[in-house]
């Protein structure tokens, strides 16, 4: 059974960067969908297909088989068994890919090929329609989640026995989202906003937030109060980010670290020279 990872998101969100890193880490195949469109375009050029003749393009699609493999850490793309990795990055191929990628049959054929890869190999795919069109079943499994000590201990098909059972039938269970950049306590007191904003966060699936603190002088008097308020009022975990703008704050970095405060914001202008 193959293991597939689908990464969806809008343009510029970092899908490809994350997908390539995951594939390298897990030794999976990163399915470069752009390379697949280019490979299809290369075949059209070799066959002399007119890019404006949709019927001819559709007919040629039926003759194409595309696969992707990795050799010595480099992506290799195969067209009907031939390694064409060095032939698909030309301007001519790119222009043909742009002209034919909008045809419905071309897209359907490539989705079919991508699904075939996913059935045969461990793959990572990224794109704006991977989770809806290519791998719509990804991430939606009817399983039971077993929790021990605040951590997921197992995913099982059988209903396990436990001290507490939460009926989530018909619902989706997702990993907690981390929002690393928030600003609390700017317009209203920190404690007041902490309670309301973290309540909103948890309702949206955010289980950890990072929030920034910016004040003159030492942060040491703040740490105990911060811990107390977070413990009493926050509905989520919190990562405090301390802004370093004064020499005293920089000198006290080891003290903050001993208190468990290890995230800091540094401004690249107006910073003491010693930093």
Give a description of the structure.
It is a single chain. The protein has 275 residues and is an alpha/beta fold. The protein has two domains: 4-134, 3-Layer(aba) Sandwich (Rossmann fold); 177-266, no CATH class. Helices cover 39% and strands 22% of the residues. The protein contains ten helices and twelve strands. The strands form four sheets. Strands 9-10-11-12 form a four-stranded parallel sheet. A three-stranded parallel sheet has the order 1-6-2, sandwiched between helices. Strand 3 (66-71) and strand 4 form a beta hairpin. Helix 2 (33-47) crosses helix 4. The longest helix is centred in the middle third of the chain and has 17 residues, at 104-120. The chain is elongated, with a radius of gyration of 26 Å. It starts with a strand and ends in a 9-residue tail after the last strand.
């Amino acid at each position: 059974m193959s293991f597939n990872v689908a990464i969806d998101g809008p343009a510029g969100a970092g899908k490809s960067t994350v997908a390539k890193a995951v594939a390298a880490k897990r030794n999976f195949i990163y399915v470069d969908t752009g390379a697949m469109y280019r490979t299809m375009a290369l075949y059209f050029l070799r066959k002399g297909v007119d890019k404006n003749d949709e019927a001819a393009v559709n007919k040629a699609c039926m003759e194409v088989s595309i696969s992707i493999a990795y050799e010595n850490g480099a992506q290799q793309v195969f067209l009907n068994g031939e390694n064409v990795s060095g032939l698909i990055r030309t301007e001519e191929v790119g222009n043909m890919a742009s002209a034919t990628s909008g045809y419905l049959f071309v897209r359907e054929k490539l989705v079919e090929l991508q699904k075939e890869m996913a059935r045969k190999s461990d793959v990572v795919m990224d794109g704006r329609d991977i989770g809806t069109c290519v791998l719509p079943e990804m991430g939606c499994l009817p399983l039971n989640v077993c929790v021990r000590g605040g951590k997921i201990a197992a995913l099982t098909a059988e209903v396990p026995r436990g001290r507490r059972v939460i009926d989530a039938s018909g619902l989706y269970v997702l990993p907690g989202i981390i929002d690393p950049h928030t600003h609390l306590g700017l317009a209203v007191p920190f404690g007041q906003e902490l309670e309301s904003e973290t309540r909103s966060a948890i309702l949206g699936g955010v289980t950890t937030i990072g929030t920034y603190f910016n004040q003159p002088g030492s942060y040491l008097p703040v740490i105990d109060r911060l811990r107390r308020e977070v413990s009493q009022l926050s509905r989520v975990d919190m990562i405090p980010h301390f802004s370093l703008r004064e020499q005293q704050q920089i000198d006290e970095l080891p003290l903050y670290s001993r208190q468990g405060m290890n995230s800091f914001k540094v401004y690249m202008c107006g910073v003491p020279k010693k930093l």
